[in-house]
Each structure stands twice: as C-alpha cells, then as structure tokens.
Amino acid sequence: MYSSRRFDSDRQAVPDRSRAGRLLLLAGTQEARHVSIALSRELVNMTVSLARPERNPRSYGRPLRIGGWGGESSFREWLINERITAVVDATHPFAEQMSHRVARVCSDLDIETVRFLRPSWMPTEQDNWTFLNDASEAAEHIPQDATVFLSTGRRDLRVFENLKGRKIICRIRETPPGPFPFVGGEFVSTPGPFTVESEIRFLMREGVDWLVTRNSGGQGSWPKLEAARSLGLPVAMIRRPPQPDVMKINTVAEILSWVRRRM
C-alpha cells in the first residue's frame, strides 16, 4: 500500500512505492479472466475492472468493478486514490482508446504497466484473406452484389455505410436494439456458442459471399474463419490498431510471472 503521495518536478502526483503494491487488472478478454482466477488463489491485492457488464457473466474469482471512469482526469485520480502500483491491460486488442489512455496516464504516474496481446491470426495457404488497415476499406474489395457477413459487432456499424449495393448481415447474440442503422443491412440474432460446423451452416443458409472481421486473435472467434476456409470464402481481415508503447506479453503464464515479481 502507499504511505502518502509524492510529487515530481512538474508537481504530478505519483504513487509512493515504499509499501506493498496493488494491481489493477483491466479485463475484457477470456485470458483476463484466467489471470484473475489464478491470482484470486494468491495473496495479491487486486482490483478487476470491466468497461461494461458481460452478456453472459462468468466468475473472475474476485468482485468486479464495472463501468468507465468518466475521462482521463478521473482515471488518473482513481489510480492515485486507490494506490495502484501496477496495471495489467488485458482489454480487447481493438480497445485502442483505453489502452493508449492507460499507457499515457501510467507513464505520468510512474505506475508499471503491461499490455496483454494474444497473438494475431495468420492465414494459411488455404485461406483467401485481404488485409485492411481500416474497416472502411472493405468497400474497395467487396463486389457490389455480394452478401457480406460483418463479424465486427454492432457498435461501429456506421463505418460500413459505404458498402452500398451489398446485402449486409450483422450477427448479434441478443434481440436487435432497433432497426439497422443504414439501408441494405439486417441483424441476425443467434445466441451461440459457435462451432465450425454451425458456422458453415450459418454461412451457407445466409448465402454469404464475404466475411469481414477484426484480427482479434484467440480461439473463441476462430470457428468462423475455419468455416470460411472450408467454403472457400474470401475474408476481409481488419488489422489491429497501433498499440501503446509499453511492454507487451502474449501468454497468461508470462502475465502471471510479471505480476508475481511485483506484488
């Protein structure tokens, strides 16, 4: 814990590390839950945070802090008040704004931080992938009369509004929140879980010609890519956004070792 605050030459409040530390684990991935459960069996002073409630809540082995901080200054103040000495950012690889905020604020406060990034997916010789630097580039590659399966979630659908002339399918797990945000698209509600076989049936039933997805990595979303490979479908793969300039680790075991050396 901290005995007090101290200030650097710019009068920036930074943690006092004279006592045992406290960890903030920013969750949002399956691997973050594995880390949390493993550390819950140890004497680690830890807060686990989720940006929003999960659709299918599962145990993290610890109580959860759910919700945002209301901006960078509030996040900074929270870290100081809660006497955080180390942060593991295990949010989604596409949580760009949050990850850069964490790196920036932790650098200012002299808080050790590490970014968990599971390995990116890589195509095989049997795959037909087109890599995109930005989601809006999909329109440059997908024919006008194609049926497109958007496997990118519904929060950023507006970026695909330039796919005019195509039939757009966005699969969601819950009841659609309202009408599709632009003409030519529809929501398909399917609860999952998904297997390669079920994904093949889905792609064939919907008459999908192209799959658009983000390079999230991991096993949970891989079946759709196996299915696309089996059917010979082209995939528009959106590259990950630039990551913050902090240490990056890509296995749960390495994250646990990093934490144990510091707590």
Summary of the model, kept short:
By secondary structure, the protein is of the alpha/beta class. Helices cover 24% and strands 22% of the residues. A six-stranded parallel sheet has the order 5-4-3-6-7-14, sandwiched between helices. The chain has a six-stranded parallel sheet with strand order 8-13-12-9-10-11, with no helix packed on it.
Please, could you describe this protein's structure?
With 263 residues, the chain is of the alpha/beta class. It folds into 2 domains: 5-119 and 242-260, Rossmann fold (3-Layer(aba) Sandwich), CATH 3.40.50; 129-238, Rossmann fold (3-Layer(aba) Sandwich), CATH 3.40.50. It has 6 helices and 14 strands. The chain has helices at 30-40, 72-81, 96-108, 196-205, 222-231, 252-260; strands spanning 5-7, 13-15, 23-26, 46-50, 64-66, 86-89, 112-116, 129-132, 147-151, 167-172, 185-189, 210-214, 235-238, 247-249. The strands form 3 sheets. The chain has a 6-stranded parallel beta sheet with strand order 5-4-3-6-7-14, sandwiched between helices. Strand 6 (86-89), helix 3 (96-108) and strand 7 (112-116) form a beta-alpha-beta unit. Helix 1 crosses helix 6 (252-260) and helix 4 packs across helix 5. The chain starts with a strand and ends with a helix. The model is unreliable at 1-19 (pLDDT under 50).
